[in-house]
Amino acid sequence: MGSRLRTAGFAVLAAAGLVAMSGTATAAPAQAGTTARTMHSCATVTAGHAHCLAEMRTDVHRSNAAVRKAAATPSGYGPADLQSAYKLPSGSAGNGQTVAIVDAYDAPTAEQDLAVYRSQYGLPACTTANGCFRKVDQNGGTNYPRKNGGWAQEISLDLDMVSAVCPNCHILLVEAKSSSFANLGAAVNRAATMGADVISNSYGGSDASDANYGQYYNHPGIAITVSSGDAGYGVEYPASSHYVTAVGGTSLRADSSSRGWSESAWSGAGSGCSAYNTALSGQSGVGTGCGKRAVADVSAVADPNTGVAVYDSTAYQGYSGWMVFGGTSVAAPVIGAVYGLAGNAGSIDNNYPYAHASSLFDVTSGSNGSCSTSQWCRSRTGWDGPTGLGTPNGVGAF
C-alpha cells in the first residue's frame, strides 16, 4: 500500500513500507513566545526512502574547543536537568541493562562524539574497549552503511539521551542500510537477537497495520519505545503498533514549584487513533475514545524551544559541534533509558504504565491541534493523546 510520510510538519510521498524520521533537532530553552532559527538536518532522498526531518538550531552551536576554552556549559538541557525533572535514580540504577538505538545510515564518529558528551557532563566512559558501547550494521556485523550527516545528528541525539538518563546502561547502536521500513525493521530485529533489553526508535510514518509490519516490533520481554511524531495531531506507525510504547512530547521548563519543573503538551507531538491495530488492554479504562489503539502512552520533553544539548562532529551543511535538539526523537530514547533504569522489561509489557499511572507526572495543559474528540489532541487530567498518561516521576511506571 502507498503511504504518506509525515514528520516535523512536512510530508513526503513514498512507496509501500517506508518510514520517516520523527526527530527534530532544534532550539535551546528559550523565552516563552520565541521561536529559534532552525534548519532541516537531512536532504530529500530518492523515491522509495524516507526523508529525515531533523532540525538544528542554527544560532546556537559551538565547537567543543570553544566550550572547553570558556569553561562553558553547552546550551540546552543536560543530564542533571533531565534527571531532576523526572526524579530518576540515574546514578545507582541501570547496571546490566542494554538500550539499543536503531537508526538509518552511518554515523562514523558516533563513539567519539559520545565520549565528548559523556566527558563534558562527568558521566562514566562508555566505549567499545570497556564493553559498554557496541555499533553494528543491521546484519550484526561491521559493514556499515554509507554516511549521512543528518541521520548522524539523530544518532548522536539518541546516544546522548540514553547516556543522560541511564549512564550505567550499555548502549547498542544498530545502523540500518537505508531508511526503508524493511531495513529499519531488520535493524530492530537484529537488536532483539543481540540481547537488547530496550530498543528505542525515533522515526515514524503513516498509520499502518501490524499485520504487515508487526514482525519487526513484536518482541515480548523487550521494551520498545517509538516517537509519536512531530507534525501535531495525527497518528503514525510504528507508534501505533500494538507492541510498542508510544512516546509523546512536552514542553519542559524549570519553575518554583515543589517539583522544580512544569510541563505542558508540545504542539508538535503526534497523537490519535490507529485505524488498524488493537488497543492495549490497559487503555480500556482510561477513556481514550478510540475504538482501536490510541497514541500516545507516555511522554517526555520534546519541544525544540526547551531542547536538549547534543554533541555531533559529523558536519552537515557546515554545522557540527554542540547543538540543541527537540522533537519526539528526544522523548523516545529518554523513555527507553527510563525502562533501562527500571530494569523490568523482561517481566512486563507495554500495558504496565497504565496500571502504574500514579508514578507519572500528569500533564494537564496544552494541545497539538484540532480534533473531533477533545482528549485526542488536548491535554487533560488523566490520559490524553499528546502526552499519554504523563511523564516519568521516578521509574515506578516502567
Report on the architecture of this protein.
The structure is a single chain. The chain has helices at residues 64-69, 79-85, 110-120, 149-165, 181-193, 210-213, 328-342, 352-355; strands spanning 3-7, 10-14, 20-21, 23-24, 38-40, 55-57, 98-104, 133-137, 170-176, 198-201, 203-206, 223-227, 236-237, 245-254, 261-265, 272-273, 294-295, 298-301, 308-316, 319-327, 360-361, 391-392. Strands 7, 8, 9, 10, 12, 14, 15 and 18 form an eight-stranded mixed sheet that branches. It has a three-stranded antiparallel sheet with strand order 3-11-13, with no helix packed on it. A three-stranded antiparallel sheet has the order 4-20-19. It has one domain (3-392): Peptidase S8/S53 domain (Rossmann fold), CATH 3.40.50.200. The protein is an alpha/beta fold. It is globular, with a radius of gyration of 18 Å. Helix 4 runs parallel beside helix 7 (328-342). The protein contains eight helices and 22 strands. It comes from Actinocatenispora sera. One of its GO terms (molecular function) is tripeptidyl-peptidase activity. Keywords: Signal. Residues 1-27 form the signal peptide. Residues 76-398 form the Peptidase S53 domain.
